[in-house]
Write a structure and sequence with these properties.
Shape: elongated
Number of helices: 11
CATH class of the largest domain: Alpha Beta
Number of strands: 11
Radius of gyration: 59 Å
Largest sheet: 5 strands, mixed
CATH superfamily of the largest domain: Histidine kinase-like ATPase, C-terminal domain
Strand order of the largest sheet: 6-8-9-11-10
Number of domains: 4
CATH topology of the largest domain: Heat Shock Protein 90
Structural class: alpha+beta
Order of helices and strands: HHHEEEEHHHHEHEEHEEHHEE
CATH architecture of the largest domain: 2-Layer Sandwich
Distance between the termini: 62 Å
């Protein structure tokens, strides 16, 4: 079939490692089995032969020792050395006898005969007492060789080797003939059938040759052929359907791409809008702080101006009567001077607040890069946030170092600080009577600063800490929280200021946010 040929053309089967044929393996197995069996039988026979030969020698030696002891008692009694040697010589006729030694009762040598041991270590020794009328006259020691079994062993070895070779050849020939008839030929037919399957020719059925394991294999291959034919038919049908579907794929891809592009553009616009909303919210908090801060000096200025107007009106009325006293005029001038001093101080304070607000508002709305003192920006932002902090009964502990000049973006930097401080007030001191927010700004090295915002509030769990920078994650869902505050802070710190931000917190032990940023921000479009 065309689809299968394509698969065969693109996938080259891995060649198996060279190995012995099945006939060679079976032949070697048979030969090794026969050889090992014969070897085991041979070893058992050799051991039994040696034991039997040794027992025979031992019996023969016992008989020879008794006969020699009986024959030597008279020569030993009469101290007839010549007769004793004759008897020993007669006993040495047996070629297996290696030595005969006769000792007197006092352990002195009497007579001896010895021949060379053909195989050292292959011998046994026996000692027999020479007794005459219940009196021990001496001792007879006979040593006989047991090496005679080697001749028998050589004969058996030759016979077993010849039998092993003949049996192996006969069994091998018989097995090869039977295997070729019962195994090799059927397997060759199955291999030929499998080649038909490999090349995709699935029309010819695979017939079972006989009802045995080979027949079961043939039946399994036939079932595989049927299943493959059915599968390839389904694949052809799927390919036709896929071809029809692919004809309109480009159009659907183009439509989906356009849809995704529009969705991405909408998402980008939404992200920009959310950032702008967050900036306006931050600026709104600043405006509220400015309004609260301006209320006091302007109220004081209004009160002083009213008082000064009343003093001036009193002087004018007294002057209209023509009875204006010098003391009244001096008192009016003194009170007017005091009022001017109070008025100037309050108006200077209001002007400073307006100037700080103007700078912070410009920075947070324009995102312009400029050189600024980071400590001054921190003071300006915290000054404008102080009304909200006092309302929440929160104290701010500030530690900064003057002269921390930065070539960066003061607006995003102030927005980050504002968000972190207000986030501590809103989340850290929720349902608490108040607390302390600590702001530390110091130098890490010549090119980096560290801003740390710590609160002693509620803290957060490890699960919340891990998700704090995730967009739309908030613990105030449904209560005004958007879940974007810390995500925006992270984006400003990383993408605009070129720094890094970490959060450490333990439940009921507060939260610490640490920001490390370079004094010279990376050059980029913001």
């Amino acid at each position: 079939m065309e689809s299968l040929d394509t698969v065969n053309a693109t996938q080259t089967p891995r060649k198996p490692r060279p190995a012995l044929s099945l006939r060679a393996v079976i032949g070697l197995t048979v030969v090794l089995g026969i050889v090992l069996s014969s070897l085991l039988v041979y070893m058992e026979t050799a051991t039994r032969l040696r034991d039997e030969h040794t027992n025979e020698i031992r019996i023969e030696m016992q008989q020879l020792a008794r006969l020699c002891a009986l024959a030597l008692r008279e020569p030993l009694w009469n101290y007839s050395l010549e007769e004793a040697n004759s008897l020993i010589e007669a006993a040495m006729i047996n070629p297996d006898v290696l030595s005969i030694n006769v000792l007197e009762a006092n352990r002195n040598p009497f007579a001896a005969r010895e021949r060379i041991d053909p195989i050292p270590g292959e011998s046994i020794t026996m000692t027999q007492a020479i007794v005459r009328q219940d009196a021990v006259l001496g001792e007879l020691t006979i040593r006989i060789s047991t090496a005679g079994y080697h001749i028998k062993l050589a004969t058996i070895t030759e016979r077993y080797a010849r039998s092993c070779v003949l049996i192996s050849l006969g069994a091998l020939l018989f097995i090869l003939v039977v295997m070729h008839w019962r195994l090799v030929q059927p397997l060759q037919r199955l291999v030929a059938a499998s080649q038909q399957l490999i090349h995709g020719r699935l029309e010819s059925p695979i017939e079972a040759i006989r009802q045995d394991e080979i027949g079961s294999l043939a039946q399994s291959m036939e079932e595989t052929r049927i299943a493959l034919r059915k599968l390839f038919g389904e694949i052809e049908q799927r390919n036709a359907e896929l071809k029809d579907a692919n004809e309109n794929l480009e159009q659907r891809v183009a439509e989906r791409t356009q849809s995704l592009t529009e969705a991405l553009a909408t998402l980008s616009r939404a992200q920009v809008d959310i950032i702008q909303i967050e900036k306006l919210a931050s600026l709104g908090r600043v405006v509220a702080g400015v309004a609260h801060e301006l209320n006091t000096p302007l109220g004081n200025a209004l009160t002083v101006a009213t008082t000064m107007a009343d003093v001036q009106d009193g002087v004018r009325k007294e002057d209209a009567t023509g009875k204006l006293r010098h003391s009244t005029l001096l008192n009016a001038l003194e009170r007017t001077q005091t009022g001017f001093d109070i008025l100037i101080r309050n108006l200077d304070r209001a002007a400073n607040i307006v100037q700080n607000f103007k700078q912070v508002a410009v920075d947070q709305t324009n995102d312009q890069r400029r050189t600024f003192d980071a400590a001054h920006v921190v003071q300006e932002v915290l000054t404008l946030l102080s009304p909200g902090l006092r309302k929440a009964n929160c104290k701010v502990d500030v530690h900064t170092i003057e002269g921390l000049s930065c070539d960066s973006f003061p607006g995003p930097f102030g927005q980050v600080l504002s968000n972190l401080v207000m986030n501590a007030v809103i989340h850290g001191f929720e349902d608490l009577p108040g607390g302390v927010v600590s702001v530390h700004l110091n130098r890490v090295d010549a090119d980096h600063l560290r801003l740390t915002v710590h609160d002693d509030g509620r803290g957060m769990s490890e699960d919340v800490r891990k998700k704090i920078f995730d967009p739309f994650f908030t613990t105030k869902m449904g209560r005004g929280g958007t879940g974007l505050g810390m995500n925006i802070v992270q984006g400003i710190v990383v993408r605009i200021l070129g720094g890094s931000i970490t959060v450490d917190s333990v439940p009921d032990k507060g939260c610490t946010v640490t920001i490390v940023f370079p004094t010279c921000a990376p050059h980029m479009n913001v």
